[in-house]
Structure formats: C-alpha cells, structure tokens
Amino acid sequence: MNGQEAKVTTTHVHTTPEASSCILDPTPSQSTPTEPPFIWSKTRLYCHEAFSEFFGTMILILFGDGVVAQVMLSHGEKGSYQSISWGWGLGVMLGVYVSGTSGSHINPAVTFANCVLRKFPWRKWPIYALAQTLGAMTGAAIIYGNYRSAIDVYEGGPSIRTVPGYSSTATAGIFCTYPAAFMTRTGQFFSEFIASTILMFMIFALNDPHNMGAGNLTPLALFFVIFGIGACFGWETGYAINLARDFGPRLVSYMIGYGPEVWTAGNYYFWVPIVAPFFGCTFGGWLYDVFLYTGDNSPVNTPYMGLRRLLPVPLKRSGLRSEV
User: Fold this and answer.
1) What confidence tier does 3 reach under pLDDT thresholds 50, 70, 90?
2) Signal sequence: where (predicted)?
3) CA–CA distance from 139 to each of 65, 174, 220 (Å)?
4) Helix, strand or coil, per DSSP, at residue 12
C-alpha cells in the first residue's frame, strides 16, 4: 500500500510493488505540482503517507473507542454489544477513506504483511507503524477528554481509575482490550491470531483483481469484515487485531492514571495484541496467496516460494534445488 501524492481511485494498478499492496490503490493526481511552491506544501508532500496513516488510525479510534465509551458509561442504555461492532466497523471504513493516499493500512500488522507478501518497501514500515500508533494515541486522548466527566461519575470519583479484573466499575476497557477472565494464555493468543488471519485473508481477497474484488466498495466491504469479526470473535479478547489500536490507547490510559495494572491485567495480556496480529495477518495473507492468488507480485508465486530473494546465489548451484 503506498501513497503517492494522489487522489484515491479504485482502479487496481499493478505496475509497481507499492501500488499492488494497497487496500485502496492511489494513482497520481494530475493536479499535484511537481515542486510545491510553499514550505508547508513541500512538507505535506514529503510526509503525506505518515499524515494519511496518522489521521486514518485516529478516525478508527475515535469511532471505535467512542462507541465503547458510550455503551459502557451509559450502562447499556445508549447502545449494546452489537453497537460496538457497528462502531468499530464504521471506524475502519471511514479510516480507510481518510487514509487512501497511503494505501489505508491503519494497522502495523497489515503493513508488515504487505512488506512480506506484496513487496511493500520495508523502509516504510517503521514510519507507518509510528504514524499509526501516534494516531491511535491521539484518538484515545480525545475520547478521554470528551468522556472524562462521565468516567468520573461511572468510577465513583475524579481520582478513581480502574482496570477490568480489579473493579466492577473499571473503565480502562474503553481504551484497549482486556481478555475474559476464563481465558488461558494460549486461548488469548489464538483468539487474536485467528481474528487477524481472517482480517488479512479478506483484505487480500477484496483487493485481488483476479478475484471478484470489491472495487470502490472496498471500504464498505471492510466495514462488514470488521463487524463480522466483532460479532463472531470479539467476546473473548475484544478483537484488537492491531498493535496501534491496542498499544497506543493502552499507553494513553497508563499516562492518564490507570496505573501499572493496564500492563499486568489478564496475566500480562498486553503483549498478545502486539505480537499475535503480526503472526495472524502474515499467515492469513500467505494462506490466500498459496491457494487463491495468481498475481506475480507475491513471493508465493515465484520460483521456490520466494527463496531466491533470500539467497545470494542461485538455488541450482547451491545444491538446494532438490531440498525445496
């Protein structure tokens, strides 16, 4: 997924590695000046991919954490669990629209899977991941500012901030995910892994021009993907499936006074939403490529499953041909 200074279209372009790794494929805008006349224009052109991922992820969190806050703090009067699935689905859909010029990753694990399987430049991964995490942190901070008074009332006082598992009125779950009390460590990891696998499998399917594809309905299709994951797989761990979505707001909750319990709750669950999505998204993308994808920009569809890219000498000469 790349973003050259562009307007977003839904035409699938596969002439470059970066273009082929997009959720929404950006194409160059004819109105974009070659040399922007103003300093800010130059800065924006240089940093537009980072800005795109930042604001796309911020929108995701504003709608996602926002709906959780409304449902929780109203004691279910202003929404239900289904409302949460709707809210997160809307957050993803609108975040994808906002971040089209960068490819609409809004998830470090999605960017990572594109680096592995769609030739997306590895040098861009740290930039995307940082922008996504900062965007998530900003969104979480805005939600806290908006619902602070309601949190005070719900928790029982302005200086009280508690975490699930430590209080019946805990509100830390507004910002990040916490597992159900019955979940084992293995169960926690597998729940996030399978949800992340489904996510990436569907992203590749929706963006595959050799399949039915979703075209300009890709954001809407992703809305239903996220809604489905939340409705069917969200109960046990909260379906973080995104390092930025979970770690960024978790860090914000720690900074605003929820204490070290945000890291220790659920038997130190915090690391699961950081690690599992990378394994899940990479596996989901690989699974799609092995069985369904026919494009030549995936290592799966190159000789020896892409091993030639990793070895400095031809496999035939190195004696590995018979082993692969």
Assistant:
1) very low
2) none
3) 8, 12, 22
4) coil
Alpha helices for the chain (secondary structure H) = 39-73, 81-98, 108-117, 125-155, 185-206, 218-233, 243-253, 261-268, 272-291, 315-318
* Opening angle at CA 39, ends 34 and 45, nearest 5: 45
Which of 197, 131, 173, 125 has its CA nearest to residue 269? 173
CA distance 269 to 313: 43
Taking the CB of residue 80, how many other CB atoms lie within 10 A of it? 11
Eight-class DSSP state of 301: G
Residue showing tokens 């046990």: 236
> What pTM did the predictor assign?
0.85
Q: What is the pLDDT of residues 161-189, one digit of tens each?
A: 999 999 999 999 999 999 999 999 999 99
Nearest to 238 by CA among 166, 167, 177: 177
pLDDT in tens, 222-258: 999 999 999 999 999 999 999 999 999 999 999 999 9
**Tokens read off for 114:** 């594109």
DSSP reduced 3-state for 237: coil
The token pair that represents 152 in the structure block:
């005070």
Give residues with Cβ within 8 angstroms of 11, minimum separation 6. 25, 27
How would you classify residue 217: left for phi > 0, otherwise alpha for psi between -120 and 50, otherwise beta? alpha
The CATH class of 6-310 is mainly alpha
Residue identified by tokens 């470059």 is: 16
**For the residues 88-99, what does the mean pLDDT come to?**
98
Tokens read off for 14 = 């596969």
Compare 22 and 276 and report the one with higher pLDDT. 276
Query: Using an 8 Å Cβ cutoff, are 138 and 225 in contact?
Result: no
What are the CA-CA distances from residue 258 to residues 105, 179, 181, 196, 222 (Å)?
29, 17, 19, 27, 32
The DSSP call for residue 167 is B
